[in-house]
Amino acid sequence: MADTLTITDNRTGKHYEVPIQDGTIKATDLRQVKVTNDEFGMMTYDPAFMNTASCKSRITYIDGDNGVLLYRGYPIEQLAEQSDFLETAWLILFGELPSKAEYDKWAHQITMHTMLHTNIAKLMEGFRHDAHPMGMFISTVGALSTFYPDAKDIFSQESRRLQTIRLIAKVPSIAAYAFRHSIGRPFNQPDNELGYAGNFLSLLFRMTELRYKPNPVLERALEVLFILHADHEQNCSTSTMRAIGSSHADPYSALAGAAAALYGPLHGGANEAVLRMLHEIGSINNVPAFIKRVKSGEGRLMGFGHRVYKSYDPRAKIIKRMADLVFEVTGKNPLLEMALELERIALEDEYFVSRKLYPNVDFYSGLIYQAMGFPVDMFPVLFAIPRTAGWIAQWEEMLNDPDQKIARPRQIYLGASTRDYVPKDKRK
Ligand code: CMC
Question: Is the CB of 235 under 6 A from ligand 1?
Fold first, then answer.
């Protein structure tokens, strides 16, 4: 017998058999539940999509209770240990690890598309000196759609592949231009001899030397951070990418929207918020008082908690271990002691334990970024660079999914019923 859910409507006494597939019922199957034939039918109410699967996906798997994260079936720990960002991006986008020939061609194609059109540089120069780099990033990615109008051809696989290469290649350059603009230094040109993370470091930090040599520990740390941030299934920004893409907008416009969703302090802006929080706490002695304030509802412990993970975020574990390697090169971030003390107290405290609030990916990443010389407002940009691979993979999966249509939720209308317009002079 097929799995079904039996629903009894006590208003009418009717029974309904709703098929269960993949542990899920289709929300539209509930539409048959109605009292009279002219009714719209039953809907589900799910603000913030707490219990709604918006798609079927084969990209990323999270087991939030057990702290498991898989990209295309591969555990994040193995990828962080053995892969590099471009290989992981390929895996996320195309479903399998690349062969040697596929990898080499992919890395070459990305390297060949890292340069930005000079008018992009001019556009970016137009921002105020103190413009937030994430604002610059979002606007510039959106502007790319005007440079590549061929991107509108979203149903051409060839065009999608070209835009994918352009986006993954150019986001580090845009990010680096935003950084250089904010510190008043000229833009660097890409160095094709370097890998993805190494070239990014060169774009950011090269001064007058002819060739920038990235520190191998920091270069590898950045690759790992990029791997850890490459995708995370249906989070706020990815859902935004899918929603904008569902109207058949070009990928640059959709990605600018996704990056805007990432900017908020509850999502990709959290690592920036963690550092600001640590500065605000100021000293290890103030940690207990800060925790007390959080528990009384005055603000949140940033970098803690997650909609899906109800255990230690596996990415946070990897980052915490990596921090030691980075600090051996850069010197210890003085805020680390405070972060460790916050974690220690929170993990023993009933408030956090009962709500299953553990450190998430953003709790320690900011400390590493800061030690590597990034200003705090670059943190969300550093998140957006690798997440570009995930956003594009999810966007393509959505476009190729025959179940998908333009994203258009319903509402429960609780406003005024029909009433007549009252001219201004007749209003009370
Ligand atoms: N500090 C203190 N209390 C918290 C926190 C926190 N960081 N997170 C959740 N809670 C409490 C919350 O007040 C609520 O308590 P109560 O049941 O008494 O009202 C309970 O825990 C459940 O919280 P929620 O807001 O219903 O949970 P959510 O799934 O809607 O929110 C979250 C998830 C990530 C937005 C939230 O945990 C949060 O705001 N964390 C801080 C921001 C942060 O670190 N964000 C990064 C997320 S990971 C990377 C990414 O997605 O970009």
Answer: yes
